[in-house]
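Need a sequence for this fold. Nothing fancy.
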């Protein structure tokens, strides 16, 4: 692959039982778990539901298992039953990095001052070149295309994604279940004033929709796609689509085979697999699918192999063309220690989209800035001496002398950053605690802090008016939100990233917390506070790959063996409605069911239907909801906010969320609101409940991993019931199925910046 572009830039810059009351627990969730009381005749509510249905599976692009060897991307498209089995979580993203450090995932920083500076300078020059090219581009050209096969399949797939019934990622093997989103603009420099809330994108004009409809009709695609296509491509959509019919692939849930058929119908024999228009769109699409799996970039050989599997005759040339046209960016990361002068430094070549690339670089710059600009110490030693425990005191002392600190630990360790916050407030500092999910009175959510609806507000320079920002649930930070968060922290302020590295990772691209830990460029505090009780002991064992039996004299952990999905649904309903409230005095509203996915016979849809029938029956006259229904509001990717339905009117669905009233517009209800008695583990991250029922039907076996089990089991405070139907797949997943690696650049960027900062001035 040609690397002239970067070379030129570098040169120019010089870079229970049926209930817990029936049988004592104390058994680990294995096939030999305790058998609770006699099963009842059958499920009390319908437990089966057709799977998600729709299209077959589209191959994702898997990141490399090792920096030196690219993992095989999935093969060409296959028709598969997307609805079978539990499936992946639809609203949450992929499994995160299970360990704090992934030794094989990051290249060692190397190359010294000149190489690091040249690389950074090269990227800045490239960014300016891209901006110029975009400004010079006139408008779309012209052409056409047609769908082969059933147009109804295409329409059904798109409708399923738009309605929220099925995320776009469900159409790709092992793809993270998250709504597909376009690459954002690179983070802006520090604003001169507090940023205004982002305006909703304008709806496409009627003329634009009509124009697209005509092109779709010529290509045999469903005319109902005109609105989505116009929304994605803008007012010039008809001309864009006619010029390059493969841009239909930019609509969520459309697959390459469908876009190819559409192109053949419009272009005829000219629509070959090596068409430059096709390869340019396909490169971007593959990188977007990689982003859904958590990658911020892909190794060039992985991307070339994926292009070959989609029939591109010369993948290397296609990739070079995309790089030359600046539709993607290329990066060279040093591998191994720095080499002697005159020797060639081994590198890995990464390719990524502009949005994630710029966000990752902005984040690295921001973290390096905070690490070096914090204010001098206040009277921190007195605060440390008054800390409630040794771990809290160590955290306070670390923050006293550093602008950037990481803190790791389990659920019990969350008390330590809160003790730090209290100590800092006692010193007169402005403090904000931000978490992934709505929590205590003293914390805000990251999303609300960024939007300005919660938190300290911003100063005249557009930065948060605070001296210390503590971020809990740091593994849930994706690279874009993390970059925006760090950009808002002023010079001199301190930042603490705290979280449990063993939980599921972020829904969006990146592995920010794991990368910061792996870079080792700031102090890392590890809590000494273990999670207490039988649940804490069980979860701690899972974190190191062991599914241990635990003594649970108070029935804190109960295993409920089941034979099939129908029995699993029945047992879960029985536990929530009867057994747990009777045995522990925990109301049914405080018992949360967690399962592997939305589809399948024991997914969230089936469980919620059965739980609603038992706990709040009704006709569902408000778009399937009734007053009193427990729901989950998903306003954006990776955010799952528990709420309760109050009423509905012409404005939309009225929800009560922890005492705050919100209204979800009618047209958004179907895609943003789900019943919430049962959720996925991704939706549950960051929250805890007095009692949790984890449902593991037989068809969930392939979806289990250590971080999924760790996260699901760790959501329980007082009681955990495991409805267990996966036999030995559970201990096998805990012992052997690690989180899938994500290809990212942040650790390498942080190491390079640290190395550059340590070099003596010439």
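Here you go.
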């Amino acid at each position: 692959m040609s690397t002239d572009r970067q070379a030129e830039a570098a040169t120019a810059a010089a870079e229970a039982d049926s209930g817990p009351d029936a049988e004592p627990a104390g058994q680990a969730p294995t096939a030999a778990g305790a058998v609770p009381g006699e099963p009842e005749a059958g499920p009390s509510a319908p437990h089966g539901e057709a799977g998600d249905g729709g299209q077959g599976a589209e191959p994702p692009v898997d990141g490399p298992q090792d920096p030196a060897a690219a993992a095989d991307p999935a093969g060409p498209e296959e028709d598969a039953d997307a609805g079978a089995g539990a499936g992946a979580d639809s609203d949450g993203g992929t499994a995160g990095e299970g360990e704090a450090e992934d030794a094989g995932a990051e290249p060692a920083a190397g190359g010294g001052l000149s190489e690091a500076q040249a690389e950074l300078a090269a990227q800045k020059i490239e960014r300016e070149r891209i901006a110029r090219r975009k400004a010079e581009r006139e408008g779309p050209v012209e052409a056409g295309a047609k769908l082969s096969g059933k147009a109804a399949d295409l329409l059904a797939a798109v409708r399923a994604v738009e309605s929220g019934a099925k995320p776009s990622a469900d159409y790709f093997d092992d793809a993270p279940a998250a709504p597909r989103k376009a690459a954002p603009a690179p983070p802006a420099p520090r604003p001169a004033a507090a940023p205004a809330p982002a305006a909703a994108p304008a709806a496409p004009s009627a003329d634009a929709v009509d124009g697209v409809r005509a092109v779709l009709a010529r290509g045999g695609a469903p005319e109902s796609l005109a609105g989505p296509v116009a929304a994605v491509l803008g007012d010039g959509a008809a001309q864009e689509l006619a010029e390059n019919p493969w841009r239909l692939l930019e609509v969520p849930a459309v697959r390459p085979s469908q876009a190819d058929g559409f192109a053949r119908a419009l272009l005829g024999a000219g629509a070959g697999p090596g068409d430059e228009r096709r390869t340019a769109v396909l490169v971007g699409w593959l990188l977007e699918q990689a982003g859904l799996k958590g990658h911020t970039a892909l190794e060039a050989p992985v991307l070339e192999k994926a292009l070959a599997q989609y029939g591109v005759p010369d993948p290397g040339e296609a990739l070079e063309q995309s790089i030359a046209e600046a539709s993607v960016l290329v990066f060279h990361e040093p591998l191994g220690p720095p080499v002697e002068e005159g020797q060639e430094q081994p590198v890995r070549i990464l390719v990524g989209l502009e949005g994630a690339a710029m966000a990752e670089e902005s984040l690295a710059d921001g973290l390096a800035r905070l690490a070096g600009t914090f204010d001098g110490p206040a009277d921190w030693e007195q605060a440390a001496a008054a800390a409630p425990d040794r771990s809290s005191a160590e955290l306070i002392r670390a923050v006293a002398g550093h602008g950037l600190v990481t803190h790791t630990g389990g659920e019990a360790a969350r008390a330590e950053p809160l003790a730090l916050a209290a100590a800092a407030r006692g010193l007169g500092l402005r403090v904000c605690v931000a978490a992934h999910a709505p929590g205590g009175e003293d914390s805000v959510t990251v999303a609300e802090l960024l939007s300005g609806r919660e938190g300290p507000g911003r100063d005249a320079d557009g930065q948060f008016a605070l001296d210390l920002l503590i971020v809990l649930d740091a593994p849930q930070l994706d690279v874009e939100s993390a970059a925006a968060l760090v950009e808002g922290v002023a010079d001199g302020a301190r930042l603490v990233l705290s979280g449990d590295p063993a939980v599921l990772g972020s829904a969006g691209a990146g592995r920010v917390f794991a990368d910061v830990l792996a870079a080792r460029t700031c102090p890392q505090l590890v809590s000494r506070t273990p999670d207490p009780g039988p649940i804490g002991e069980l979860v701690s064992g899972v974190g190191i790959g062991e599914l241990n039996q635990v003594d649970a004299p108070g029935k804190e952990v109960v295993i409920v063996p089941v034979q099939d999905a129908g029995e699993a649904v029945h047992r879960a309903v029985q536990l929530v409605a009867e057994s747990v409230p009777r045995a522990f005095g925990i109301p049914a509203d405080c018992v949360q069911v967690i399962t592997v996915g939305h589809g399948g016979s024991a997914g969230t849809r089936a469980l919620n239907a059965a739980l609603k029938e038992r706990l709040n029956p009704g006709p569902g006259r408000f778009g399937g909801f009734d007053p009193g229904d427990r729901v989950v509001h998903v306003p954006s990717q990776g955010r799952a906010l528990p709420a309760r339905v109050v009423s509905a009117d012409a404005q939309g669905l009225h929800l009560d969320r922890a005492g705050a009233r919100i209204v979800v517009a009618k047209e958004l209800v179907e895609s943003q609101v789900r019943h919430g008695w049962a959720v996925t583990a991704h939706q549950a991250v960051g929250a805890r409940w007095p009692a949790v029922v984890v449902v593991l039907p037989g068809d969930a076996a392939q979806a289990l991993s250590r971080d999924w089990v760790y996260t699901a089991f760790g959501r329980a405070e007082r009681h955990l019931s495991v409805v267990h139907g996966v036999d030995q797949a559970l201990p096998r997943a805990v012992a052997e199925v690690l989180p899938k690696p994500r290809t990212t650049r942040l650790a390498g960027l942080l190491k390079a910046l640290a190395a550059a900062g340590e070099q003596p001035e010439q």
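For context: The chain has 25 helices and 19 strands.
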